[in-house]
Amino acid sequence: MPPTQYKTFKAKEDDLFKQLLQKYLPFWPLYLLLITLFLAAAYIYGKITIPVYEAYSSVVIKDESKGLNESEMLQDLNLFRGKKLVENEIEILRSHSFISDVVNNLGLYADVMEEKKVQKAPAYLTSPIKLRFKDPSRIKKVEKIPFTFNRDARSVTIGKDNFPINQWVTTKWGEISFIPNYKYNGDTVTRNLYFLLYPSQAVQASLMNRIKVVPASKLATVINISIKDQVPDRAEDILNELVKVYTEAEIEDKNQRAASTVAMVENRIRSVAGQLDSVENEIQRYRTNTGVIDISTQGRQYLENVGQYDQQLEQIKNQIAVLNEVEKFIVQKESTSSGIIPSAVGVNDPALNQMLDKLNNTQLQFEKLKRTTGENSPILVNLKEEIETLKPGILENIRNQKINLNITRNSIASTGNRYSAMLSTIPQKEKQLIEISRQQAIKNQLYAFLLEKREEAALSFTSTNKGDTRIIDKAYSSVQPVSPNKFLLYLAALVFALGAGIVWVSLKEGLNKKILFRSELEKLSPIPVEGEILYDSSKDPFIVRNEVGSRISGQLKSLRNKLFFGANNKQVKKVIITSSSRGEGKAYIGSNLAISLAMTNARVVLVDLDFYSHEISSLYELDSAKGMVEYLRGGASLGDLLHTDKTTSGLSILPVGATNDGTAEWLMSGKLEGLIKELDASFDYIVIVGPAFSDDVNIQALSHIADASLFVIRQGVTSKADLTMLLYNGHLEALKNPGYVFNAVKGRGWGIRLFGNGYGYGNNPGK
Question: What gap in Å lies between CA 538 and CA 545, rounded to an integer?
């Protein structure tokens, strides 16, 4: 903020504070009286009001969403721990069912009260017995049930009826039981005790509204519980009982879940065991019917056997092919033809191999000799015969070998086909066995899992005797009462006293139908306020002359100087004074203004034009003297009508006249203007006091004969409505050079008599 703006703002702030101080400080005795009364009322209220205490408790909730995790072992053991949210637990703690349990368990529907001299007080700790109903839902409201307790007879007397304690008895209020109060200290003081009965639903609703359950912070899992009550022990009992009910409900819920889980696991184990036995029996029947012991091993063996048989068949085929080649070679070749006989490789027959070797050697010798000897050579002939002899034996051996090999091949092929057929059925059998085995494996896994969970459930079931909620602080109550708080009580009394005083002052002045403040004049119209004249308790009409040094005298002289000797002097010589109604001080202002002018060694004439009240004439004891009326009627000269003031030199008075009937419209007479001109020639200043507007509105038309017009406003007398009407009709603006005179301004309040321009009053006048 710029320095200039800051200074302006500070000045406005100081001015506002000053105005408020000036407005309300004068009534300090009223504030002192109200403060005394309110503080006394607060003291009495604090004495007769039963103090209220507040009890607190806090619990921690295991909320995983806010970082509170258990160890893995605890998590494994605690199968039945539900997930919790702090927000949910807050609503659960405030639930109707829990509050109902607290009310019924503590018997809060039946209050025991002690009647004292000036008040009634709870007898929660001082009553020897408590009251319990068998059916609290049927309780009806009962204001007062007086009773006495007979300690020796251990009975309760209500009216003429005696009831034993610790027994259910039937009464007109319902089936009830009187039980000992364990908090009773056993004193022998005689007390006036009585019961108050309330419908349990109403008590529950009241308790739900009184109990506050809030989280410690947004990130914490701690819940703070509090309640206010007239008896701190009862407040603690309520909170402890609420936490107890909540914990028991939590444990009961866990036990129910644990029991249902264990029962479900046991039922499932029995069901799965039956299914597993059925699957195992099916596998047994399948193996028996299909001859399958170990289908994988058997399939592998079948596959190996088929391979071996195929290999043997190939060997036999090779041997037959070799024999066919050898046989073909021997049969196709001539006996003496040359060439190497194919080897019988792969044929496991030593005799055939020897014969083939011998045939090959003989033919080689035959071929060598054939080149060197003739065809008829004995050696060559012998070799030829030997060759011819060997071939039939070889062919016979070959044929025998082929027959044996074919037989073996057929046998092996038949066996191989049988194994191949068995091998082709293995995939289908294996598929069926796998399906059955899969069911068996699933049932085995499920059965093992259920057995494991049954053991875990058995271990976890032992841990359900504790809830997930841990109590941080058991209920404890405040040492000092929270209500009524003496500091706040007295502070409120002080504030209300000051507020009541301010409201009284504001209403008294704000609702007043009279003009009280100069600010009201300034708001109503732009007509300037020429001066403020304080209220004169002495009611001296000549105060300027009699009390020269007084403050009021100074104010009247200040008005004179402003009108006739001011810096903006417009040569004001003639002034006319009027008001809205009678009694507002026109004569007082006019007389003192004329005297103050005369005191400056000027020639001044005071003219009384008020034909209705002729106050000026009365002030100077000229009621029966001739004056304005006689002049206007004719027959009297001006010199005969003027009366010189014997006390003030230079002051002359022109009275209204002795024969005034108050009805003629003298103000509209044409001679009046001539009279004023004649006076103007003889005097330095002319002060004219005219009638009020309520008597004669013609004063408006007459104002042109003067240089200025003064409209007198008397504080607490001039009506806001009258002034507003004159302004609305334009009467005041029609006056020549109009100005207000705020007359008879009283100091506000007592002791400090403040006045101020802002509110119609100046500073402390010191008087």
Answer: 14
Amino acid 473: pLDDT? 82
Burial class (CB in 10 A: 0-12, 13-18, 19+), 3: exposed
Handedness of CA 300, 301, 302, 304 (dihedral sign): positive
Q: How far is Cα of residue 642 from the mean position of the Cα atoms in its chain?
A: 86
Q: Which residues contact 274 (CB under 8 A, 6 or more apart)?
A: none
**How far is residue 583 from each of residues 609, 614, 716, 723, measured CA to CA in Å?**
15, 12, 11, 15
Measured CA to CA, the distance from residue 706 to residue 465 in angstroms comes to: 108
b/e 399-437 (16+ beta carbons within 10 angstroms → b): eebbeebeeebeebeeebeebeebbeebeebbeebeebb
Task: Name the token pair of 69.
Answer: 């995790």
Given this model, what pLDDT does residue 664 score?
Answer: 52
C-alpha torsion sign, points 248, 249, 252, 254: negative
Cβ atoms 732, 726 nearer than 8 A: yes
Q: Strand 470-477 to strand 53-60: parallel, antiparallel, or no bridges (unpaired)?
A: antiparallel
Query: What does the alpha-carbon distance between residue 735 and residue 387 come to, in Å, rounded to a whole number?
Result: 182
Q: Indicate the pTM of the whole model.
A: 0.55
166: left (phi over 0), alpha (psi -120 to 50) or beta: left
d(CA 268, CA 251): 25
User: So what's the pLDDT on residue 259?
Assistant: 77
Q: How far is residue 97 from each of residues 391, 468, 475, 498, 667, measured CA to CA in Å?
A: 119, 20, 21, 48, 93
Encoded tokens for 195? 């019961």
Convert the pLDDT of each residue in 292-302 to its tens digit. 555 566 556 65
Assigned token pair, 539: 């009611």
Compute the distance between CA of residue 580 and CA of residue 592 in angstroms, rounded to an integer. 20
| Residue 223, beta-bridge partner list | 59, 215
Q: Measuring CA to CA, which residue among 686, 605, 588, 595 is closest to residue 642?
A: 605
Positions of the chain with pLDDT under 70: 1-15, 63-84, 188, 283-284, 286-287, 289-310, 333-349, 351, 374-375, 416-440, 458-468, 567-570, 635, 659-667, 749-767
Full DSSP string of 186-198:
-------EEEEE-
pLDDT at res. 577: 92
State how far the Cα of 135 lies from the Cα of 138, in Å rounded to an integer.
6
Q: What is the pLDDT of residue 729?
A: 84
| Residues composing the chain | 767
According to the model, what pLDDT value does residue 766 have?
A: 35
Which structure tokens are listed for 57?
């408790």
pLDDT digits (tens, 9 = 90+) for 307-325: 666 677 777 777 777 777 7
